[in-house]
Amino acid sequence: MAEFSSSRRNFLQLPTEGSLLETPHFEPETATTAPPFTLQGGLTPYSGIWGREQAAHLLRRATFGSSQAQIDRLYKLGNAQKAVDSILNVPKAEPAPPVNNYNNDEFTDPDVPFGKTWINAKRNNDGEFFRITSWRSWWMERMVTSEANILEKLILFWHNHFATRTDISFSGQACYKHYLILRKHTLGDFKQLVYDVTVDPHMLFFLNGLYNGVNAPDENYARELQELFTIGKDNPEHYTEADVVAAAKVLTGWRLEYETNKVFLDPWSHDQTDKQFSAFYNNRVIKGGADAERELRELIDMIFQKDEVSLYICRKLYRFFVYYQIDEQVEKNVIQPLAAILRQNNYQILPVLSTLLRSEHFFDAVNKGCFIKTPLDLVIGVLRNFNVYIKGPTLYDQYQILTSLGWTCNDLQMLPGDPPNVAGWPAFRQAPKYYRNWINSDTLRNRNIYSDVMTYWRYETDSGYRVFIDHIAFAAQFPRPDDPNLLIDSILQVLMPMPFSTAKKQVLKSILLSGQAQDYYWTVAWKNYTANPGDKAARDTVWYRLAALHKYLMGQPEYQLI
Amino acid sequence: MERRSFLYHSCAAAAGASFTLKGMPVNTAPQKSFLDALNFNGNPENRVLVLIELNGGNDGINTFIPLDQYSKLSKFRRNLLIPERNVLRLQGTQVSGLHPSMVPFQKMYNDGLVSVVQNVGYPEQDYSHFRSSDIWMSASDADVNIENGWAGRYLEQRYPGFPIGYPSDANPDPLAIQLGAVMSLALVGSQWPMGMAITDPKAYYEFVNSVVEPAPEGFFGDELEYIRLVTQQAQQYFKSVKGAADKGRNQSTLYPPDDKNYLADQLKIVAQLIKGGLKTPIYICTLHGFDTHSGQISSSGNPLEGNHAELLRMLSEAIYAFQDDLKLMGIDDKVAGMTFSEFGRTIGSNGSFGTDHGAAAPLFVFGKAVNPGIIGKNPQVPTDLSESDDLPMEHDFRAIYTTILKDWFGLEQPESILGQKFPILPIFKSISTPTRDIRTVEQFELNARPNPFRESSTISLQINGGQVSIRLLDGLGKMVQTVAEGYYAAGTHQFLLQRQNLPMGQYYCQVNVNGTIGVQKVVAM
């Protein structure tokens, strides 16, 4: 143990030496002191060094990436506890709903005027594809533009947990309502969330709940409720097939109006017999009757009496925010205490996440940089890292830009709204690869092509509006863009999860200097540009070098890690 | 245990898992290999296996339809059952037929290019898609978790040391190709993924060169190393795949237009790459959508239409075009294909014009090298259906993997990959497995009673007359007793199976009537 610890410590300290020490705009403690070594780190609140490095780590995991300004703001709060409070302070108000931004030559929504929201419109199967796309775009826009808090990342967690697809309900309204349910309970009551999702139209469609009736039971939801949403199968002693059958009976009778997604109970379809559960649930019998709502509450209460629920959801949270390996120590020192917190707090999520994110374990150097970016972390992250402006001049431009981003995510195997199946994305569940599922020859190439497009080319809408990285504006926000060494350090802090070695930084610098040895070539070029911002040649000189640098950096394997 | 060494420990355990799954000593006693007898394209190293995953759990009953079970089926799945007159008939059998949207596949069957294995599954069915497909991919027992794939383990054994030193002059091509962007667990080795995922074989991308410093120890270093490796390999394999794609030309005109049939699009690329000289031995293609809880048939109630009909049409069309392509290219004797799905579906239908998760289902192996016909009997549908009734398994899916590893890839000891021995099924043509002529496949009824037995069991066999042999094979597929051999007239005959000195265990009673084989599992207690 001791030998191992010291070797790890060495590597962790190594990259902090070098030019960072001389960097004037970094506070000294960022670079000079290694983080306290806490391999055993449990859930004790982290009280170690608070530098930009720690602030950036928190932002990378709890949001879809961050800008220099967001890192700075969090850093200036002064310690991890205040920073985590700030991350967990999520807006309560419902956002402005998605609108018809999709009317075009091929399709005009007959029910909803351009610019007005479609969320209250009746189902129109000719238009639902566009409404769903509009909903997805709206959601992705929130991911790109949200402030530095955990809300959207956590909604994605719940989306992966209660994974649904858009093609079954095929209703923009059902998708939107589903999103609002996840959002409402994001940091709140997990048990209530399970209840609400169970009778949510989008889910009733997705797992056939609306067809589940006394004469033709459909076990689909009853199974996933236990297997994927609450109990899980981590413990070999789990619910039985008979429990799936019994739960399916409890769940009979929920119906909805196809046109409006209004959910109601049909007493004639509800199985009113008593439902017998197995020894796993202490042979519990849920009394049958006409009141299907009561039975559902009892079913969920019964399920939540099992400790498996809290353990299962805490493991999932851990894999979503920290790392996929859960060994005996993590299980004992992190998962089990978190699960106890969840139970003690009546299944409120906030205390659990608050404890996890502010813990020594979360800030432990061993857990940094080991999370392979999800496609959304990558696609949205590039935009957030570089402050890419995505507001088009018209709603339709906006629709096109965000739709294109959606297709990019789809190519990378993560289209929000459409995980591959009800178990969610394999990266969060499939051992042994977990996150590595995201990376193969095909997706890695597509990730690189995306960052190349943002670097050298652009997304262009029909009207000619362009979305791309403004390389000069990105560099200009740093304290010393004229000094190639300091500029590179600043850029690395935004883009990379770990400091680079001196040798690797030399390579970066040679890109800025076009292979020349003297730093002042860059300084002169930069000053020449700032003195004559209108001079195309002066501007191009710095633009192309910065673009080459950014392509190179985003092509590094390290850029895939947070 | 400290964290790090725990991780290494669990990795090592995973690596060794394939050898000691049940702590069972690997039996090295020589077993007759069918390999030498195979007269197809000599060197098994040149052979290609194409796996077709029917994702979601395919409804076996409506795919390979048990006509002799109709009276019972019409009770339990009346609204979904294919009308008897629409079922596609097959040469040599009166009791099984194909879904009406599989006309091309019917032709392939009648041309002797298809082997159907009945009632494939595993003991103690787990009805979860995820767990069940993990079981199929990893080839584990239902109650054992193995975190790597059977094909991955096989490739690991065949190409030692991978990924270090690959690609090389001797092995310039990907070891396995997954069509699509998501790699299946089947291709994951104990340490690394053994395959490569591609969507477009002609796409090529030049990755940025990096200064490669040793990855630091720790989780960050582990993940970094992984991404670096994928980058390096992708760079080189892109070249070989693109080279093959540029050289190989599809020759069949039977493929549907692009984007109309997802499976055909994938198989077209596979044929192109094999023809183009790629030495990759394993390909995996996927057709999604078989989880037909609802909409299995059209909502108008016409069982000939709907999602399942459409999927089977795609499957049948795609395989037929692929086989035609291989034939025109002159490479059909080195390619075999297999369909599989994580489970079958319930005997009864539900209220949503669909079926729920079930157990055993038929599986198809196709190609010029297969021994055509049907292995096993139609599933027996119970007279009264209770909620827990599902079609029982007759063949463990790992018996098919065993057969493929041994008879197709020439691996002497498939148990080194699968951890246990499973019987070899007569899927491929070989001397020990008499080649069947599909046109004269016999119908017969085989029944051993009592089963399980202590002293003896009586085998009753109803035949139309001909050359009969009855053999008892042990759980490893080795012949332990000849029960009967000779010519028998039409009618019902009874044979006595004597226990003699046989140890307790599972046996297979293999009956061969004029070259048609039927198998019944018997248990000596």
Low confidence ranges of chain A? 1-39
Shape type of chain A: globular
Classify the helix fraction of chain B into a percent range: 10-25%
Biggest interface in this structure?
A-B, 80 and 67 residues
Q: Could you list the spans of chain B in which at least 5 consecutive residues all have pLDDT below 50?
A: 1-41, 431-441
> What separation lies between the terminal Cα atoms of chain A?
26 Å
End-to-end CA span of chain B: 44 Å
| Helical segment count of chain A | 26
- Radius of gyration of chain A, in angstroms, nearest whole number: 26 Å
As laid out across the biggest beta sheet of chain A, the strand order is 1-2
Radius of gyration of chain B: 24 Å
Structural class category of chain A: mainly alpha
Largest sheet of chain A: 2 strands, antiparallel
Overall strand count of chain B: 19
Helix content percent band of chain A: 40-55%
Main β sheet profile of chain B: 9 strands, mixed
Query: Mean pLDDT of chain A, rounded to whole units?
Result: 90
- The number of helices of chain B is 10
Beta-strand content bin of chain B: 15-25%
Strand content of chain A: under 5%
Overall mean pLDDT of chain B: 84
Summarize the structure.
The complex is a heterodimer of chains A (562) and B (525). Chain A is mostly helical. Helices cover 52% and strands 2% of the residues of chain A.
